[in-house]
Amino acid sequence: MAETLRIAIQKSGRLSEKSLEMIKNCGIKFGSDARVLKEAATNFPLEFLYVRDDDIPAYIRDGIADVGIVGRNEYDEQAIDLTVLRDLGFAKCRLSIAVPHAFPYKGLSSLQGKRIATSYPNILGNILKEQGIQASFVQVSGSVEITPAVGVADAICDLVSTGATLAMNGLSEVESIYKSSAVMIGRKDMGSDEKSQILDRLMLRLDAVMRASNYKYIMFNLPEEHLDQVAHIIGGMKSPTVTPLLEKGWVSVQTVVAEDTFWDDFEQLKELGAQGILVTPIEKMTE
Ligand code: ATP
Ligand code: ZN
Fold first, then answer.
1. Which of 23, 145, 247, 255 could cross-link with 240 by S-S, CB 3.0 to 4.6 Å?
2. Quick check: helix, strand or coil at residue 275?
3. How would residue 142 be classed by pLDDT, with cut points 50, 70 and 90?
4. What pTM does this model have?
């Protein structure tokens, strides 16, 4: 029987939807009815295993799955020896220290001798150790933010994306100590050449999808005299396509710009007289 690669995906939660969307964008077809435990793609040798995110690193280590998508926080906390194949860039969050408003926080050293509630004792422990700070950990797996109010902890260390939950519980986020996003992890040794090849094919597609999502395709009309300045602004691109318009002295420019700098570029283009700026997403992009 031909080999298939088995990927573990969070069954339901913050990682599920985006993980499946990314794989779909790789042109891989599957039912994606996450209520089932297991399913196979119909046009690629890939099998999905839908599980709790906490279980994914151990499943990979034990060979139940070959690769998986988890938050970097989960992977680092468990410290299971695997390899990070890609940072997928979504599910961005930070691990932060938060304290009640009355806590006189002056930096990590204020945590000396305090009780800190967290689900991440390893990540936090390593950071405090580096600073020579000793604290005791109250390990909780959920509702970390209520522990100071009920007198169980003096401070907390928890994942934050917007900070709204902290504010609701009368806590101030005082320091961010660690950043996380979703990562694709796998065993260091896939165990068979065929599996490694399937993984390489998947990675090639994933890279194209990720590259595309970091860029936008833009088209606009521009007074020809500003072409040099514009080329300077959108310097990253090697060869914009420039076509003359019927109206003398005007050209149409088409190029690819990075998502990161998009709004800065956009404003500068407008200042240089760019008109009819049209922006479209890119579905896939190879090097
Ligand atoms: P499961 O039932 O699978 O164990 P869970 O409750 O542990 O789910 P989620 O809350 O779905 O997990 O979070 C999964 C991951 O999403 C986290 O490990 C983290 O990497 C990421 N994440 C992004 N933003 C946040 C946030 N604001 N709070 C918590 N996790 C976040
Ligand atoms: Zn979990």
1. 255
2. strand
3. confident
4. 0.86
CA of 267 to the centre of ligand 1 (A): 36
- Residue whose CA is at the smallest distance from ligand 1 atom 13: 14
Contact call for residues 72 and 183 (beta carbons, < 8 A):
yes
Domain 5-90+182-212 sits in CATH at 3.40.190.10
Question: Which one is the CATH code of 93-180: 3.40.190.170, 3.20.20.80, 3.40.190.10, 3.30.1300.10?
Answer: 3.40.190.10
Structure tokens at 148: 């100071």
109-122: b (≥16 Cβ within 10 Å) or e: ebbeeebbbbbbbe
Instruction: Decide if 123 contacts 139 (C-beta within 8 A).
Output: no
Which residue among 52, 159, 165 is best mutated to probe the pocket of ligand 1, counting the most ligand atoms within 8 A of its Cβ?
A: 159
* Residue whose CA lies nearest to ligand 1 atom number 17: 71
Note the pLDDT of residue 4: 97
The span from the first CA to the last CA of the chain, in angstroms, equals: 34
- 192: exposed, middle or buried (C-beta count within 10 Å: 0-12, 13-18, 19+)? exposed
- Record the tokens describing residue 134, joined without a space: 């000793």
User: Which residue(s) pair with 244 in the sheet?
Assistant: 251
Residue 277 CB neighbour total at 10 angstroms: 15
